[in-house]
Amino acid sequence: MSVDKAGVKGTKNGPIVSPLFTPGHLACPGCGGTLALNRVLNVLGKRTVIALPACCFSIITGAFPHMPLNVNLVHTAFETAAALATGLKAGFEMTGRGDVTVMAWAGDGGTFDIGLQALSGAAERNEDIFFFCYDNEAYMNTGNQRSGATPLGSWTTTTPTGETMDKKDIMGIIAAHHIPYAATASIAHLDDLDAKVKKGEEIKGTKFIHILSACPTGWRMPSDMTIKAARLAVKSRVFPLMEIFNGERRVLNYRPEELTHVRDYLGLQGRFSHLTDGEIEEIQRRVDERWKKLVASVDEVRPADDGIEYI
Amino acid sequence: MKMLMEGNHAVSWGVMLSRVQVLPVYPITPQTHISEALADFVAEGRLDARYIKVESEHSAMAACIGASTANARAFTATSSQGLALMHEMLHWAAGARLPIVMANVNRAIGSPWNIWNDQSDSMSQRDTGWLQFYAEDNQECLDSIILAYMVSEAVLVPSMVVLDAFILSHTQEAVEIPEAGDVDAILPTLANPNAIDIDVPRAYSPVVAPDNFTEVKYKQYRASEDAIKTIEEAGAKFKDAFGRDYPLVSPYMMDDAKAVLVAAGAVTGTVRKAVDALRREGKKAGMLKIRTFRPFPRDRVREVLQGVPNVGVLDKSVFPGAGGPIAQEVRASLYYSGKSNGGTPRVTGFVGGLGGRDITVSDVAHAFETIMKGKGTDDPIFLGLKK
């Protein structure tokens, strides 16, 4: 964390608030997704067009005539983010504006579930687009119904006794498409996020970035816990920071020095408050198992951008 | 230049001559020859377009919407189940006021499975806000693509060009191919005022609250209604350039007709033959061909059917609980709330040609006999129904 001359808090790559995403939006206090989009736009710049399926941001960006973004934003139906982005990019290329960056900005529903078919198609064709999934782990815009990204044990309005399935392995699915670049990122590691978006900018083809986007409303926690929850997700190894190149070479960007128990992460959030000690231990066991497999599969362990120190 | 070609290839030629730039397509019988020919045109460098092999028709339309929003000329083709899968995005394209053109090869829609021709697929999409043009022959297939872009880009409403599966799609006819330069002269480069200007950030299709939504829909409605005039203007321009005339509706032998059958698509050729045969027998039969189904040319239909004692409508689709869609439109047009129009004709609905069942000249003659008896019915009469 650094403080620039104007006294604005930021990181070494720039201010936290991008001039491309202005105040006046309609996000809940403490929204992790808004922070994530701020960072992404800060890196990608003005010549960016967003393909936006139904998600929290359909509302966050405001009803006509309000518009808190200083980039073009194209709203579309729930399952079409990747297909719309495909068409936008093709349209720009065919009209002599191939330099325009086209990005899809989709929630977990528009990525893991209803949007997966179009995402798979675009990834398989290796369309020259960014696909960002800001993952708040449920259908939060409609009041917290479970999605394919909802983690085991989580309470939602459609899993009143707790989610019984493990979160879908979206990175595994994406890796199987052999796109040039896929990465996970966290709003608690902004320089890492920046570095990954910058890396993606230099790559032609499909870039997939999965951002765990802590959601105070849906996760049932105070609005000032967003960053802490996001950080604990990474430290407890629930959400590893990683990169996958061409579906094969795997890099782990962060290896926690000491083990943080999932209890610390889950305990922050009301959506897990019903879990028994035994259930929490079962979640820990699964996290350990996945981590072991991940570490065994990675080719390299290093920060995404050399020299970054994670707090 | 004249070439022997099937209706599907006539569509592909129309697309090439319209200099379409983005082609997201997904194959489906009996549309596939359109996409295959377009793939060849692009591969051979005859058409400078991005050909996108999308993973579904739903995505095909979403990609057309993206391309059109970026101010590129976009086209896709589909049929039947594919069109049904697109349904949501058809509303989206029309609401976003994008001049996309699509060819739909008319095929029955399941259940049960049936790959043959009827009009139930496109008629099911009649209320999505798209213009709909029904082609009678392969020449009309080609010309309609060009005309559709002329109209859509003028009024910013998407267009569907509809052709009958197998009857046109896979049947060869001699087709006159317009010169590319002549097409360029009547269809200039796309300049959609609603397309993205990268330097001017705007939200496209955002949430529009109750205080503005009605106005957006009103403008969309008006644009579609006003397309009637634009279709006539584009038709006149096209006639000047190529000598072929495409009015909204085409009356045939109607001046003194006592019984008129209304129809759309390739079956109008059969109806014309039946009218000729009946005329030879001294019976005063006539036909009204509907080329533009959306917007429905109510005024023209009312005007030409005025004073005809008996009218029949031949639908190649049927909606349970409502009858045939063209019959509904014709009846609605004749129920005029203004001054008297000289007597409202009795309208008898016929349903035929479902799922590829042949409609013969004698079927049509039989329909005319029924009309001439002057017994209008609410329920449609199913032609050739087996007991």
UniProtKB/TrEMBL annotation, chain A:
Pfam families: TPP_enzyme_C. One of its GO terms (molecular function) is oxidoreductase activity. CDD domains: TPP_PFOR_porB_like (cd03376). Keywords: Oxidoreductase, Pyruvate. InterPro entries: PorB-like, THDP-binding, TPP_enzyme_TPP-bd. Residues 72-211 form the Thiamine pyrophosphate enzyme TPP-binding domain. It comes from the Bacteria. This is Pyruvate synthase subunit beta.
UniProtKB/TrEMBL annotation, chain B:
GO terms for molecular function: oxidoreductase activity, acting on the aldehyde or oxo group of donors. The keyword Oxidoreductase applies. Gene3D superfamilies: 3.40.50.920, 3.40.50.970. Keywords: Oxidoreductase, Pyruvate. It comes from the Bacteria. Residues 257-364 form the Pyruvate:ferredoxin oxidoreductase core domain. SUPFAM superfamilies: Thiamin diphosphate-binding fold (THDP-binding), TK C-terminal domain-like. GO terms for biological process: carboxylic acid metabolic process; response to oxidative stress. Residues 15-233 form the Pyruvate flavodoxin/ferredoxin oxidoreductase pyrimidine binding domain. This is Pyruvate ferredoxin oxidoreductase. It comes from Candidatus Zymogenus saltonus. The gene is porA.
